[in-house]
Amino acid sequence: MNIIEDNNHVILQNPHYIFCYKIEKNKNIKIFNFRISLKDFIGLHYDSFYVYCDGKFTRSRQSTYDDKIVLNNYNESYEENKIIIDDQIISNEIARSNTSFVDRSEYSKYKYVQRKKRKICLELALLRPTPALIWKVMSIRCANKICYISFQDLANLTCLYNVNSDKNKKIMVFETCQGLIIGTLLRKQGGQGTIIQVYHGDFPNRTCIDYMQLPQSHFNSIFSVNFQNILKMGMKLQYSIDKPINENSDFCDNNGIAIIKKKDDHNTVCDSNGKKYLDDDDLSLPKRDNVKLLKHIEIVTKRKYEEEKAIEIIFPQGGDFNDFRSMDSLIIASKFHPKHIALSLMRFLKYSRPIAIYSQYREPLLDCYQALKKTDCFIDLQISETWLREHQVLPDRTHPVINMDGRYGYILSGIHVNPTME
User: Fold this and answer.
1) pTM
2) What pLDDT score was predicted for residue 319?
3) 200 close to 252: Cβ distance less than 8 angstroms
4) Number of H helices, E strands in the chain
5) For the residues of 32-78, what is the DSSP string, one character each?
6) In the beta sheet, which residues pair with residue 234?
7) Which of 91, 117, 179, 319 would be 208's cystine partner, CB 3.0–4.6 Å?
């Protein structure tokens, strides 16, 4: 639907502000000097422009922020309150009280008028969350949580590495980008195919996926599994690495061998049929009221089901760990060193299938490049960097942006092959 409802997510944007909010009736937000109740957004339209003034929203028929809009008059004394139709009338009103305004350049006049308008009204675009907009919000607000990934790198990971809406396609993803890459893949596949989300920690992070408001059918194609549980099913990994990332790393011991931490089997909660709900793999059972307890059990049960389903997809018949190559793509983008992760997950990748590894820095990818090269299981290994020059496009003011973000990452890509084939 194109109408904003309760518990929906909406991105509020204007030339100086952008953020994603969940609509809650009892919550207020503050944007610049305006305090707005989120319940006022209920019933408004997505992908529309509104002007907030005098405590209410007025829909604008214009498609840009610079065109004619209806807003309250501004003058230096704030004595009058008239309806102004466009920026030209505002300029005339300002010129009456500011003799130097006429001598300004057109660009300077425009900035001055916009600055005065922001004091009396708030222009907002109410946008439906998309991967591009969510990336923009995250890159401005908390770029470190998405590993400083640029939009062009995100596009390369989803467009150039065998990602499409094939219902038989299986993609394995290890990422620590708040679910941004997973959500982008889900949206592009349209609920088709299968995505295996490999995560590290107590639970998979899907913050950006929740923002996107994808249909429920899309979530039927994603299954999460803990990285250590995959290694446990594979029995042992016998890779020899020169030096581990960290002696206390969760991924390897002092010899660089991937290990699994054992957990005792107790504190188990079962239903009347003996089905296990909780154990030490999850958070210990807290003292809560019945509603919160049931919700907690439902979440944990769903997580258990996803993990069991993911294990079935990765190991469809049971048997030797080395015999299973069922993934059509492998994408890694995390804050951890990618070397051990790639060496551990490459055995699940089919032959003649691509691997893509993103890192903010070049040095970890160089280590990973050398390690993958030694296995003789990859061809066409290359490290690429995408650089995008931003331009401002305005009437009589089109030129490259003077100040732009220089945080761009690197992508290591290659094709998995059978080393025994001649």
Assistant:
1) 0.75
2) 47
3) no
4) 11, 20
5) TTEEEEGGGGTTPBTTEEEEEETTEEEEE--SSSSS---EE---TT-
6) none
7) 179
Residue type, 42: I
> DSSP string covering 322-368, please?
GG---BSEEEEE-SS-HHHHHHHHGGGBPTTEEEEEEESSHHHHHHH
Residue for token digits 């070049």?
A: 362
Nearest to 122 by CA among 181, 198, 59, 50: 50
| Tokens (6 digits) for 146 | 């998405």
226-231: average pLDDT: 84
DSSP assignment of 10-37, as one string? EEEEETTEEEEEE--TT-EEEETTEEEE
CA distances from 8 to 21, 186, 215, 217, 384 (A): 8, 19, 12, 17, 38
pLDDT at 245: 39
| Residue 287: predicted pLDDT | 47
Please name the amino acid found at residue 114.
Q
> What distance lies between CA 102 and its chain's CA centroid?
46
Tokens coding 370 = 């050398």
What residue segments make up the domains of the chain, in order of their start? 9-127, 131-260+315-416, 265-305
Q: Under a CB-based contact definition with an 8 Å cutoff, are residues 354 and 381 in contact?
A: no
Give the strand pairing for 170-175 and 329-333.
parallel
Tell me the residue type at 332.
Answer: I
| Alpha-carbon span 192 to 166, nearest angstrom | 6
- Burial of residue 368 (CB within 10 Å: 0-12, 13-18, 19+) is buried
Backbone angles phi, psi at 273, to 5 degrees: -90, 5
Do residues 84 and 73 touch, judged by C-beta distance below 8 A?
yes
Whether residue 74 contacts residue 83, with contact meaning beta carbons closer than 8 Å, is answered with: no
Whether the pLDDT of residue 364 is over 90: the answer is yes
Give the type of residue at 50. Answer: Y
CATH 3.30.990.10 assigned to 131-260+315-416: no
How many residues are present in the chain?
Answer: 422
Which segment of 24-28, 118-122, 152-156, 341-345 scores lowest on mean pLDDT?
118-122
- CB atoms < 10 A from the CB of 8, how many? 17
